[in-house]
Structures are given as structure tokens and as C-alpha cells.
Amino acid sequence: MDSAGSRMPAAARTAALAAAALLATVVPSAVASGAEPVPRIDLTVLVLDDGGSAVEAITSELRSTGVPYRRVDLNDSRRPVIDAAFLADSSDSATGRPRAKYQGVVLPHESAFGPDSAEQAALVAYEKAFGIPQVDAYTWAHPGVGLDHTRDGGYAGPLDGAAASVTAAGRAGPFRHLDGPVTFEDNDPAISESYGYAGRPREGFTSYLDVPAADGGRASLIGEYAHDGRRELVVTFAYNQYQRQFRVLARGIVEWLTQGVHLGRSRNYLSVHVDDVFAPDARWDTVRNCTPGDFDCAGGDGEGGNGEGDNPIRMTAADARYAAAWQKAAGFTLDMVYNGGQGEQWKTEHGGTDPLAAQLIADRAQYRWVNHTYTHPFLGCVQDTTTVPWRCAKNAAGTTLWMSRSEISAQIRNNHNWAVGKGLSVDRTELVTGEHSGLKTLPQQPTDNPNLAGALSDNGVTWVASDNSREPQQRSVGAARTVPRHPMNVYYNVGTAAEMTDEYNWIYTSRADGGSGICETDPTSTCLPAPLDPATGYASHIAPREARTALSHVVANDPRPHYVHQSNLAEERLLYPVLDQVLADYRALFADNTPLVNPRQRDVGTELNRRTAWDQALAAGRVTAYRVGTTVTVTAPSGVTVPITAPEGTRKRLLLGTAAFGTPYAGARSAWTAPEALQTSVTLTLPTAPTT
Questions:
Q1: Could you tell me which of 685, 671, 573, 571 has the C-alpha nearest to residue 627?
Q2: Strand pairing of 205-212 and 163-166?
Q3: Beta strands across the sheet bearing 668-673
Q4: Crossing angle for the helix pair 355-362 and 317-330, to the nearest 10 degrees
Q5: Strands 182-183 and 195-198
Q6: What is the SS3 assignment for 597?
């Protein structure tokens, strides 16, 4: 047998001796009596980090889904020594029950300490003694990891654009959430974005993700290598936490690492808020390169978003009918973020009728509705528009002038009452202010309007939207909490693809190419190599990029809504090609057991709030979780709900009897849960003990 083990008998002997020493140390009572108590496995992952992107990617998945982990920096000379005492001890001196401190181990590669090192031997012994899985985050194809060398019918090189297949074993096992091929990103043909080694499996290796081999067979990129009483998940391609191929595979890596039982949960979320419904939106001027009505456009007054200027963009009744039909065909619900007063004003100015409003109200049950204030005013400081950019107006004493609490409250209340009067089902706890105003707006308004929190409380608002590009973290506004939203790069002030491309060119091309040059001075922006063709640029460049960005949020366990404007459903209906691509790509990739979750604003706020409380409890060391055989026990601070993922068939212990645990998702069951009445811990019973 050609293996690393057969060539290193000294290392093998060292590992065997270490295993015996480990068992003798942690189970003295068992050794003395001949009994073998079932070990306790703590639900924490050990991450041995060399600073590489692969380990960081897996760590980011653990962190974002709420899986507890301990990170050891291998480059830190002061780090703890990985030995038997670090890895295990005895949890109960009376019974001698051994305790494994980590349920899984993430290594940079299969031999991070060197094959003959004492630390490597201790880790091998630990994994054997307790059946602990090990992920080799990134390595190359060779017999030491159960694969032939790439020269023996495999492949080594760039993987950009490659379509890898999830094998039958992968779909039946840890990657059961996937269905279609996993295509590696190829965003820029000028550079290599992914590199890998695909090797043909040897004895003991089960491939989960593979590509065609040179000899007509298949060569593995991810698979399990079972050998010498241990199991390793072998990954042989490079990646980082942002690449789509990692993001879609990350769930399966964690499921394999934790044997399907872990703290934390994740979903694939997509919600889309359509702002300014019933209101008109101003139109981009392709000659002046600005939006009439904006402060920085000649003659502007800052109300461009409310349809100032010539020829504003507003949905028609036909657009409303199309939206309803599209939702039904797509199996997706939009959130209509409405301004009732703007609609009333439009009706008054157009002969007292409004076919758009009549159609949307007739179809009201097909949408979710969110309060956007009655007439969409700026709810922050009083804006002084004598300068560009605007600034907060001050009184003679130098004190900032603010919109009053009563004015803000009236905007919220009147819009809610308008919706109730029209039969719209609206949740008063949800609010999106116009332009997210009232919240701090840098640089001009560095603090919230001090009257905002009181007005929110007056109207029972507990979830107020914010702009994720400005404030990605949830925070408190009085008794309310923010719900960050992702802005989609489909502009509010365009109705046609040509207008969209013109404005995009203005922002993303250099002065030399006729653009604004913003991309030359903004460190977060990159200039286009050449302006896009107005006739084709939206379909060929802008829409695919935005679809890719949105899907990257979906597959990152990010519940934050995306937002666009009613203008994107009007005229050439620019939003639909983006959403059609997102939905098509998602459904081609994921299995039916992993549907998109489409939460409303309050549900997103609740999810983010729970995550914050959970992260704080973990950081404070106030969570205890472990498995003994088929029993999982979790203790957390009172009031903190616990995220848990477990196999199908898991049951939760009640005060009397048990009940099915959680809800099904991605082939497992998961939930935010808490102890039942008169209980101090959450206790689950697994259908079987995880494989060791």
C-alpha cells in the first residue's frame, strides 16, 4: 500500500502510544473497572489557522451560522500546545466519563504540524479515540490524502468556469442541499480566480464533488478519506469566503465536520422591497448627467426622489398587472413599500382617477405592504440647500433644526391609516422612512434626529429600515431596532436600459472616457475599461453583475432585504431580468429541500436580533453544549434563544414527553429554540448517534 503511514512507522508508533496515553489520562475509572462510559463531545469546533484564505473561509461560515469555535493561530509563538490535555479531559470524576473538547477539527492541510511532530500525533490520537472528523481546508492530490497524483489521470490548474458535479454520495450525504453542477466563478477572464488539483480516488476515498478526468473517468475536488481509524474531508482547490463555489459548498463542509449535529442554523434568504409605490420617481437627464429635482442638478430642490422634473417615472396599471403575474409565475412575493399621500396627490393632479392605485389595491392580497411615510419627506434635520452638498440648518443660536416629533408621527400614522382604509394588510411595527431619513446621514447629519425614536414609539414601530451600505449592523433607535437593507444597483431614476447604462457610465467611467471620474477618486470603486454600449450594456454587463451580487447575499445566510424602487417595475421593467436570473441560478443549483426563504421586514429584524444575542452569549462564554451518545444538552442564559441543527428524526424533550424538533431545511432540521417551562436546558434526542 502506497501511503504516508507505511513510509513513516515512527510516526505511526508515536500516534499509537499517544492514543493509549490519552485514553489512560481521561478515563481512569473506566480503565480500572473495564467499563467504557460513553464520552461527552462538546459542540465546539477547533480551528487551527495558518492565516490562509481557505481556513478563514470555513471560519467565516462557522461564525455567520452561529457555530461555536476556538481558533488557534499557528503563527503565534504564544499559542497553546496541541496535546492530550488541550484536546480532552474527564467531565465527571465520579464516572470517569471522558470529554472531547471539540466535535471537529479544521486544519490548513493534512499535516499542519509535520508528520513526525508530537502535536500531530496528539491530534491523530484524539481523533481516533473520539471519532472526531478533520477537514483539510486546502491540499493537493496525492496518496497521503487518498488520491492519485494529478499526473496519473487527474488535473492541476485553473478552475475558472469549470462545472463540477456533486456525486451520488455527496447528494446522499453532506451535500444533499445541492442538485445541479457547482460552477466555479469566472468574473474576469484576464486573471485566474481559482486553482485546484483533481485526483482520482484510491481505496478508502469517497468523492463528493468531482470533474472529468483525463482518462474519461472522474477526479475528486472534495471527498472523504477514511483511513487508520480516522476520517478527513479533503479539499483540493483554493478558495476564499466570498467566492460562490465556496459559499454553496460551505453548508455541506460544516455538516460533515459536525456530523450533522451543531449549534447554529442557516437559511438562504431573498426579500425585495419596492420603495415609492404609488409615488412617481424623477428621471435621469442624459444630457445634464444629473436628476432634475436633486440639489446638485440645476434648479434642484432636493425632492428628485418624489418625481420632480419633467416626465417622471411611475408604474401604470399594466405594470401592476405584470407584477402580479410575474410573482405568480416566479413563485416569489415582493414587498410593496408605499406612500399613500403621494398617490393621493398624483390622483388630484391627474383628473381624480388613478388606474395604478386601483389595480394595486385590487391585487392587494398578492403583496406584502410596508409603511414608507405618507408623502416621503426628509425626516432628519431641516436641510439648508443654499450650498452643495446640503447641510443641516441651524437657528441663530447655532442649534440644529429638526423635523418635529409630531410631524414625523403624522407621516407614519397617516400612511398606516390610509392603508387600513384601502384594505391593505400592513404591519404597524414595520417602517421604511424616505431615503432612510431620520437616521444619521453622513457626513451632513452624524446623529439620528432626536425626535425620531419618540415618533416611532408613538406609532408602535419596532423595526425601522436602514441602508446596509451605510450601516450594515443592526442597532437600536430608542425601543426600535434597525433592519439594514441592501441597495440593488438598479437605479431609482431610470425607466429604460439606455438611461440606466448612461448613468452607470457616468459613475463608472473616467473623465478621459467622458464620465464623472468618481471611480478614479473613490477607493471602493473601479472604472470600466471603456463605456458600455447604451443599447446592450444593461443586458450584457449591469444586470448579470447585479444578479451575481444578489445571489452572493442569498447564499451567505444573509437575511437582509434588498431594495429597489417602483420605477424599476415601470416602462422597460428593469428589475425583472435581474430577479429572473437570481431565481433561475438558485433553483438550478439547490435541491428542492433547500427553498428560498422570503421573510418580511419584522422577521428579518427578529433574526438579526437573535443572532446578536447569541453571539454575545458565545463571546461571554455563557453557553454550554455537548452530546453524550444520542442526547444533546444545551444551556444558555435566560432569554437567549438557541440555534440548533440536527438530523431528521430528532426530538425535543418537553416537560411531559417529546415532540419533533425544528423545521426541515437542507435535509436536516433546525430552529431557534429555548427550554420548555420548568426546564433550564434544551435537551434533544437524536435518532442515532453520529457516525464515528
A1: 685
A2: antiparallel
A3: 262-263, 642-646, 668-673, 663-665
A4: 30
A5: unpaired
A6: strand
Strand order in 182-183's β-sheet?
A: 69-73, 45-49, 104-107, 134-136, 230-235, 218-227, 205-212, 163-166, 182-183
Span 518-563, pLDDT tens digits: 999 999 899 999 999 999 999 999 999 999 999 999 999 999 999 9
pLDDT band at 25 (very low <50, low <70, confident <90, very high): low
Element holding 642 (H helix, E strand): strand 642-646
d(CA 260, CA 254): 8
Q: At what angle do helices 575-589 and 317-330 cross, to 10 degrees?
A: 0
pTM of model > 0.85: yes
**Between β-strands 230-235 and 218-227, what pairing exists: parallel, antiparallel or unpaired?**
antiparallel
Read off the amino acid at residue 31.
V
Q: Which residues contact 311 (CB under 8 A, 6 or more apart)?
A: 283
On the question of pLDDT at 61 being above 50, the answer is: yes
471 residue type, one letter = E
Cα 495 to Cα 552: distance, rounded to the nearest angstrom: 26
- Residue 188 pLDDT > 80: yes
Closest CA to 87 of 118, 51, 127, 54: 127
User: What are 552-594's pLDDT values in tens digits?
Assistant: 999 999 999 999 999 999 999 999 999 999 999 999 999 999 9
Residue 279: CB atoms within 10 Å: 27
Tell me the average pLDDT across 94-111. Answer: 93
